[in-house]
Amino acid sequence: MRMGTIALNAVILMALVIAHTLLADLVALGGITPDLPLVAVVFIALRYGQIPGTLAGFGTGLAFDLLSSGDGVMGLSALAKTVAGFLAGYFYSETKAQQLLGGYEFVILVGATALVHNILYFVVLLQGTDIGWNLAILRYGIPSALYTAAAALIPMFIVSRRSSVA
Amino acid sequence: MLKRAYDIAITFREYLVLSALLVVSVSLLTLGDSPQIRILRSLTIQSLGLLQDTFNFIPDYFSLRSENRSLRELNLRLSEEVNLLREAQLENIRLRQMLALRAKSAYPTVPARIVGKTLQLMRNTVTLDVGRDQGVRDQMPIVTGVGLVGKITATSSRYSIGQILLNRRMRVSAKIQRSRVDGIIEWEGGKNLALKNVAKTLDVQAGDVVVTSDYSSLYPEGIRIGTVVSAVQIPGSLFQRVELAPAVDFATLEEVFVVTHQADSSRVRLEREQGGF
């Protein structure tokens, strides 16, 4: 990966984190928001490989933590998104990247990664409380993963259209 | 030997990167609120606050902010008065034979505008356009004219982040205004709040008003939190399940007040050491 590409991806990721913080409230459905930066993390993992995906996940998660913490769980988003980026990177294939990103497999992978991310997130977040993490996952984790997967349709269509034009 | 170690590192580089980043994440989770992280967070809040302030026009359909501000300020004062009168009346009924009652004092407030909301999987927060320069400090309560919103958890010079009641980490010592039954407010997801640790035998009814308790080290006594919507006896449990609707409508929240009431630091420290909150 060239330095220019790394810098561009980093800027896009940070822009998405900020956009998420500024605008997520406007697209929230019953308090559920799509995790747009996670879509980008999965995209990077499938486009560039496991290490870039893992690093992108960590950077994005850390930015999230800095923006919303102060409540004693600093590092939680970094942890969950690092694992998410790493897992998504398993499906990286240099020869099939474009095909994967422009197909419904991308949407399914985003949904699955978001679900794993949310499970890990709630298991750690709800440690030491009497709130059942399974209930939290049912109420927030699954709807949020579905919403995030739906948001992944946008980059999927863009890549698919570019591929067909090319 | 070094060559072999290098070969192993190259072979398993993905796992090494993952492990290193996980160690950093877990360290951050363990470190929690170190001074270095506070500085970093303060810088982030300052930058984000400026951005949120700039883009705040997006959801702002009506340009009635200044009028709203003064009306809400007036509303807050009137509501405080009503709450204080209600509290005083109940106290008078219970303690009518006593002559010396401690006078209640209203705390000074700083008006603030919400310039950003962060909805993140049960960790909901708001960004306010006031910070240390306006006298806002960590742990100060946030209120509106109708009731408690949350507390400040991080500050920069001009902005601050507040944890709202709809946050998994939020806990507030509370009591039923009518029957003086104590409990702890928590949020378990959804629209309503839960009043925990209320024994089955205690008197709680739908419609009861829940206010902050005098046991709280952070919040002034008597701030309205919500209204009980249900109190259900759970078979096999010592406690009842009490749900309440928050007094504040968090979906439409725009203007708030930070109560510049500084908690007694020695009391907070002692309670934290003893596992309280």
Explain the overall architecture:
The complex is a heterodimer of chains A (166) and B (277). Chain A has 166 residues and is an all-alpha fold. Chain A has one domain (3-165): Arp2/3 complex 21 kDa subunit ARPC3 (Orthogonal Bundle), CATH 1.10.1760.20. Chain A is 78% helix and 0% strand. Chain A has helices at 3-27, 36-48, 50-68, 76-89, 97-101, 104-125, 133-151, 153-165. In chain A, helix 2 runs parallel beside helix 4 (76-89). The model of chain A has no long low-confidence stretch (mean pLDDT 86). With 277 residues, chain B is of the alpha+beta class. Chain B has two domains: 2-55, no CATH class; 110-273, Beta Barrel (Thrombin, subunit H). Helix content of chain B is 32%, strand content 27%. Chain B has five helices and twelve strands. Chain B is globular. Chain B starts with a helix and ends with a helix. The chains are: A mainly alpha (166), B alpha+beta (277). Chains A and B meet through helix 1, helix 3, helix 4, helix 6 and helix 7 of A and helix 2, helix 3, strand 1, strand 2 and strand 5 of B.
What is the top-level CATH class of the largest domain in chain B? Mainly Beta
Largest interface: A-B, 52 and 50 residues
Instruction: Give the CA-based shape of chain B.
Output: globular
The share of residues in extended strands of chain A comes to: under 5%
Q: What is the element string of chain B, with H for helices and E for strands? A: HHHHEEEEEEEEEEEEH
Oligomerization = heterodimer
Total helix count of chain B? 5
Rg of chain B: 22 Å
CATH topology of the largest domain in chain B: Thrombin, subunit H
Largest sheet of chain A: none
Number of structurally distinct domains of chain B? 2
Question: What percentage of residues of chain B falls in helices of 4 or more residues?
Answer: 25-40%
